[in-house]
Write a structure and sequence with these properties.
The chain is an alpha/beta fold and 594 residues long. Helices cover 26% and strands 20% of the residues. The N terminus is likely disordered.
Length: 594
C-alpha cells in the first residue's frame, strides 16, 4: 500500500499495486494535504501518486486519504479508492477457503456450449445445473465476440447422484486463467455444484463495453461444517409449493445444503399420511395441504440442487393438531398437548408416521430408502413440553402413578421411545435442546441435539459424546430470522464454537437459520430469510479465522453485492442495512447502498 513504491507518472518504481474501489464509502477525517476535486478518476489517481503520504481518495469530492484509511472505512455518499498490494479480491459469498487472485479482469466469451462436463450423465445433476446457470451467468443477450475465458470445463471423480447426506463431500477446486476454458474439479457432483456457484459469482457484466468479465483466480474450497441449513415453518402459516421451491432455489446461492422442514405444530398438520389419513384434518383448510407426491417432488427438486430435506414432526408438545383427526392420541378434548403418553395408540401412530417418512431404513449410496424423505436424519422436536395436561387428565395421571413415574419421567419415556423408533429405522433422531437439558447422557448417542436455548451448555453436550446442531434463538446475535431487530452484522458475530474447546468443535455438525412462521407466509418469506441468512451461511461455510472480523473481510460490501445478485436472480432479498429485517427500502437509492 505504499504509493511511493508504485510505478507512477513521476517515475517511482515498485512491484505492481492496484486500485481498489469501495462504492458508497469513505474514511472520514483521514485526509492529507492536496485535492483532486474536479478531476477524473484517473486524474485523481495520478494526483495521489504524486502526493507524499497519499494512498487513496474519495470521489467526486477529490479529498486525498492517508495510507491507513481502510482501518476505519465507513458508509458515505461518495466512492473510496485505495491502493493495495494485490488485485482486489472478487466479492464472493461465502468466502472460499483459499483464493489466489492472478490478475486484473479479463473478458468472458459466452456460448451455448460454454459449460462442459465430459463423462456427465445426460440430463443428470450437473447437466441440469448447466442449464440453470447459463441464464444466471449470462443474462444479457449481447454479441459474444471472441477471446478471453471461453468456457468452464467440469471434472468429477465420482458421478454418483445418490441423495446427499451429512457425509457428502462438497469440496472443489476452480482455476480461471486469462484465456481459454476455466477448470472446475470436484470429488462429487455436489462439490461441482458448489464450484459452479462460485464461478457464477466471479462473472460480471460491463454495461459500457457490453461484455462479460471475470477475475483470473485459483480457488480451493470446502465447507467448515457439513450441515448448513434453513428451517421453514409450514405449520404457523402454510407455504405454497411454489414458495418452497423458490426458497430451495436460493439456498445453493449461499452454499446452504439443508432444508429443515418444520412440517407440523399446534396450529396445523398439512402432511398427507397414507396410514393415518385423517391426520391432515388438522390443516388450516383442505387447500392448505401437501400430497405425498408433492413432498416427493420437493425432495427431488432439492436433490438436484444439492439440498437435503430433513422433516420435523414436533412432539409431544406442539402437537395439538394431531387431535383433529385422531383425538385418542391427545389427553383430552380440552387439554390436547403434550400427546397422550398413556395410550399405545399414540405410539402406533407415531411409529407409522415416522416409517412413512424414513421408509423403515437408511438411504445408502445408490440405494435410497423407500420413504418420502431420503435424508438419514429425522427431527422429532421435543421442545417446550408443559406436562400439566398429563397430571390434570385422570387417565394419564393414573397411568403415570401405576408406573411410579413423575410427569417428567413420562416426558423422558416419550422422547426416548420415539427416538428409538427412528434409530430402529436406520435414522438419527434430532431433538431440541430441552430433551438433553432434562435427561443428559441418558439419551441414545445417535441423538443429535439441536440447541436453541442459551441455558444449554454446548460444551457439556459435546463432551458427553453427542453431535450438535446450533442456532441459539433469543440473544443479541440470534440466528432466528424472524427476530427482526437482529441485523446481519449481529448474526455474523455468532461464532458456533465460541467457548467450545478446539477438540470438541468438530462434533458440532453445523446449524440453521430458523424462520419461525408466526408472521411469515408466502408474501414475506424470502425477504425475512434474505439477506440475513447470508451471514449464517458464511459462518458455517468459511474458515473460522476468515470470519472473525466482518470489517477486515469487507463483509458488508460483499453482502451488499450478494444481495443485489439475489435480486437479479429473482430472490426478494431485503436491503442489507435495514434497521429491521425485511422492511422496504427507506427511499430512492442504489441496490448497493441500501
Amino acid at each position: 500500500m505504499k504509493a511511493a513504491a508504485l510505478l507512477s507518472v513521476v517515475g517511482h518504481v515498485s512491484a505492481a499495486q492496484y486500485w481498489w474501489k469501495f462504492a458508497g464509502s469513505d474514511c472520514g477525517y483521514d485526509d492529507v494535504a492536496g485535492s483532486c476535486e474536479g478531476q477524473t478518476v484517473d486524474g485523481c489517481k495520478a494526483t495521489c501518486l504524486q502526493t507524499p503520504g497519499c494512498d487513496g481518495f474519495n470521489y467526486p469530492h477529490g479529498i486525498l486519504k492517508k495510507t491507513d484509511c481502510l482501518s476505519h472505512k465507513t458508509a458515505s455518499s461518495v466512492d473510496l479508492y485505495v491502493l493495495q498490494d494485490a488485485p482486489m479480491p472478487p466479492k464472493l459469498w461465502p468466502l472460499p477457503q483459499k483464493v489466489a487472485v492472478r490478475g486484473d479482469a479479463v473478458k468472458v466469451t459466452p456460448s451455448a456450449g460454454f459449460f462442459t462436463a465430459p463423462g456427465s450423465p445426460s440430463k443428470g445433476i450437473v447437466d441440469q445445473a448447466f442449464s440453470r446457470y447459463q441464464g444466471l451467468v449470462f443474462p444479457h443477450n449481447v454479441d459474444a465476440g471472441s477471446g478471453g475465458v471461453t468456457g468452464l470445463m467440469v471434472s468429477v471423480a465420482d458421478w454418483d447422484e445418490s441423495y446427499p447426506q451429512l457425509e457428502t463431500d462438497e469440496s472443489y477446486a476452480l482455476t480461471v486463467n486469462s484465456s481459454g476454458p476455466a477448470v472446475l474439479s470436484a470429488k462429487t457432483v455436489y462439490g461441482a455444484l458448489r464450484g459452479l456457484e462460485t464461478f457464477s459469482q466471479l462473472v460480471g457484466f460491463n454495461f459500457d463495453s457490453q461484455t462479460y468479465t471475470t477475475t483470473p483466480v485459483a480457488i480451493e474450497d470446502a465447507p467448515r461444517f457439513p450441515h448448513r441449513g434453513l428451517m421453514v415453518d409450514t405449520a404457523r402459516h402454510f407455504q405454497p409449493l411454489a414458495a418452497i421451491r423458490a426458497i430451495i432455489d436460493s439456498l445453493p446461492y449461499a452454499k446452504l445444503n439443508v432444508l429443515h422442514w418444520h412440517m407440523s405444530d399446534t396450529q396445523s398438520f398439512p402432511f398427507e399420511s397414507k396410514t393415518y389419513p385423517k391426520l391432515w384434518e388438522g390443516s388450516y383448510s383442505p387447500q392448505e395441504r401437501y400430497l405425498q407426491a408433492d413432498i416427493a417432488d420437493v425432495v427431488e427438486y432439492a436433490r438436484l440442487r444439492g439440498v437435503r430435506v430433513m422433516v420435523e414432526f414436533d412432539m409431544p408438545g406442539h402437537a395439538g393438531s394431531f387431535c383433529a383427526g385422531y383425538p385418542e392420541v391427545c389427553p383430552s378434548p380440552t387439554c390436547t398437548q403434550p400427546l397422550n403418553v398413556a395410550n399405545d395408540a399414540t405410539f402406533d401412530l407415531l411409529k407409522s408416521l415416522i416409517n412413512e417418512s424414513t421408509g423403515g431404513r437408511a438411504s445408502k449410496k445408490g440405494d435410497p430408502s423407500p420413504g418420502l424423505f431420503k435424508d438419514n436424519f429425522v427431527h422429532l422436536g421435543g421442545d417446550e413440553v408443559n406436562t400439566a395436561c398429563w397430571t390434570e387428565t385422570p387417565s394419564v395421571a393414573k397411568w403415570l402413578a401405576a408406573r411410579n413415574m413423575s410427569a417428567d419421567d413420562g416426558y423422558a419415556y416419550f422422547v426416548k421411545r420415539v427416538a428409538q423408533m427412528a434409530i430402529d429405522q436406520g435414522h438419527r433422531p434430532v431433538q431440541w435442546s430441552e430433551v438433553y437439558d432434562h435427561f443428559k447422557n441418558k439419551l441414545a448417542k445417535e441423538t443429535v441435539v439441536h440447541i436453541w436455548k442459551g441455558v444449554t451448555n454446548v460444551t457439556e453436550v459435546l463432551a458427553g459424546g453427542y453431535n450438535v446442531l446450533l442456532n441459539v434463538g433469543y440473544n443479541s446475535v440470534s440466528w432466528y430470522l424472524d427476530n427482526l431487530d437482529i441485523n446481519w452484522a449481529a448474526a455474523y458475530k455468532n461464532e458456533p464454537c465460541n467457548g467450545v474447546p478446539d477438540n470438541l468443535c468438530p462434533l458440532i455438525l453445523g446449524g440453521h437459520g430458523e424462520m419461525w412462521g408466526e408472521t411469515v407466509d408466502a408474501s414475506d418469506l424470502e425477504q425475512t430469510v434474505w439477506p440475513k441468512l447470508g451471514s449464517i451461511a458464511e459462518k458455517l461455510w468459511s474458515p473460522r479465522d476468515q470470519t472473525k472480523d466482518a470489517a477486515a473481510n469487507f463483509a458488508q460490501e460483499r453482502l451488499e453485492a450478494f444481495r443485489c445478485e439475489l435480486n437479479r436472480r429473482g430472490v426478494r432479498a431485503a436491503p442489507v442495512n435495514n434497521a429491521n429485517a425485511r422492511s422496504a427500502p427507506p427511499g430512492p437509492g442504489s441496490c448497493f447502498a441500501q
